[in-house]
Structure formats: structure tokens, C-alpha cells
């Protein structure tokens, strides 16, 4: 009787401890998981806003540098005198200080006067389409922003730019795996550019233009990573990543593929592309990025004509937050196990206290 009652008491305490612990872990774990992911989503949205600001600041910097050059009296004097050598020298210096990949001057009739690079003299190569200058000539106001440039334009500026813009498309799920068939290629370039009209006595003399090619560039995405995520590392991997897309293609990124190289040439998932590029909405969800899960935020990039031509992405490694949740749940489990151990000890003590007098009564009766 004594041992049966003690067993029942201990089993009861164990059952209550296990039930309370199981309910606490289940409900608490779910609430904690949702809370952590919600906090991560809020953070990544703020990070995306910061990334947009860094992107815009680069555009404004290019515009400011070109404005300073255009306002220089020596530059204007050389322009009026058609001193090509001096203009090319000044453009080259501006491009060096502003880290521009291309720069040039277009006359008021739309013909290229000169440019930096190996094709400095416009007569060496036919005039290609120059969207940002054409828009500036139409509106007679400075234009700055994102522009899509064709291969002919890039080749005219510098054949190396055209080669850098060429990106081989890779499988989205694994950028290290090669295609069995010859892969498709992207040959257009996405650039941050500006064009400044130059007037003299209300007469348009020329347009000064310049910009930076984003294809296979590391400057902006690494600036976003270093500024927003402050080089935070988790298990040997960068916690935060950033990417610039041309349409749905990664053209500039610090997301690392399985081959330990940047995942340039991979595409975003169809769900993200449809939401951001198709509907123009911001995506803030967990998503599989190349080879791992991230808490992500995507937003569209519009060109100087207002068309959605790409996306800006930031992402936080989900594993960091999942591991934090697992650590907290592990603490809950440990507390529950300790509670069950205490329940066993308490069962023994209570069984002795309750059944002691009964046992003495039984012995006295015998």
C-alpha cells in the first residue's frame, strides 16, 4: 500500500510537471519564434531603407561631381574653344575622383564631342543610343538616376565595360553548377548616371554625362553590407548580404554561392520576381537565396523613365535567429527536466510524510 501510494504521488507530480513543461515549451516556442522573426523582418525593412539611401547617395554624388565640373570656368572655356585634349584631361580627372566608369560630352545636336577611355575622340566610332543624354536634351534639366545601357553604348565608352557587363546566366539554386547547353548571357548594363546641361546666355552648349556601371561591381553592395550590417559574422559567414538586380538577374552581389564565389548570374525566385517586378510591391519574407535561407527584403528599382528595371535586396541569415530560438527552447527544456527531478524528490518526501503515520498505525494494529 505504501509503495503503491508513493508511486502514484510521484507519477502525478511527474505528469503535472511534464504537462506544464510541454505546454510552456510548445506555446512559448511558437510565440518566441514568431516574435524573433517579426523583429528580424522589422530590422531587414529598416536595412532596406538604409540600402536605398546609400544607393541614392551614390547617384547624388555622381550628379554633384559632374555639376562641379560643369560649373568650372576653365572647363567652360575649353568647351567654348573646342579644346578636346583639355576637356578629355578634365573629364579623366573627374572620373578618377568620382570613381566613374564612363564620362563624356555631347553637343546640343546630340552628337558625341568627346569621352574618356580609348575612344576619346567621338569620330572613331558611331554615336550609340545614350538614354540619359537624350532625356536631358528633351527636358533641358539635369537628370540623374538608374539607366539601362546597351552594349553599343558601353563598347563605345570602353570595350572593357562591354565585357564587364556581359554576365553568364547560372542556375538559381546552385551557381556552381554549369549548364549542359551553352548558357544565355546578359549583355546590357545597369548604371548609376547623371547628365548636366551646360548653358551660355540661355543657349544650350552641350551636355556633360557620366556614370558607374553596376554589372559585376562590388562597391555599392559591399558598402551596404559594411555600413548597415557592420561586418557582422556568424559561424564564419556574413550575417547580412546585399544585391542589385537587373530585372531578376543578380548583377552585383555579396551573396556567396556553393563555389565560394559571388553569385553573379543567378536569378531570383519567380514568387519574388512576380511580386516586386510584376506588381511593384515590396517583399519582406523569408526566402531561399542561392543556397541558404534568409530573412529578406526586396524592392524595385526604377530607371530615369519611371520603369521598373531591377531590384534592390538586403537579407539577414536566418540561421542566426533560428539558433537563438533553439537556445531559448533548450533552456525551457532544461528547466522542465529540473522540475521533473524536483517532482520526484517531492513525491518521495510527501509519500513519507503522508504514509508514515498510516504505516505506524498498521504496524500497531498488527
Kindly describe this structure.
- The chain has 366 residues and is α+β, with helices and mostly antiparallel strands.
- Helices cover 50% and strands 24% of the residues.
- It has helices at residues 2-71, 73-80, 84-98, 131-139, 151-157, 159-165, 219-228, 270-278, 318-365, and strands at 102-107, 112-115, 143-149, 167-168, 185-186, 189-200, 203-213, 233-234, 237-238, 240-246, 249-253, 283-289, 292-302, 308-317.
- It has a five-stranded antiparallel beta sheet with strand order 2-1-7-6-3, with helices on both faces. A five-stranded antiparallel beta sheet has the order 11-10-14-13-12, sandwiched between helices.
- The longest helix is centred in the N-terminal third of the chain and has 70 residues, at 2-71.
- The radius of gyration is 33 Å and the shape is rod-shaped.
Topology:
Layout lengths: L1 H70 L1 H8 L3 H15 L3 E6 L4 E4 L15 H9 L3 E7 L1 H7 L1 H7 L1 E2 L16 E2 L2 E12 L2 E11 L5 H10 L4 E2 L2 E2 L1 E7 L2 E5 L16 H9 L4 E7 L2 E11 L5 E10 H48 L1
Antiparallel strand pairs: 1-2, 1-7, 3-6, 4-5, 6-7, 8-9, 10-11, 10-14, 12-13, 13-14
Helix pairs in contact: 1-3, 1-7, 1-9, 5-6
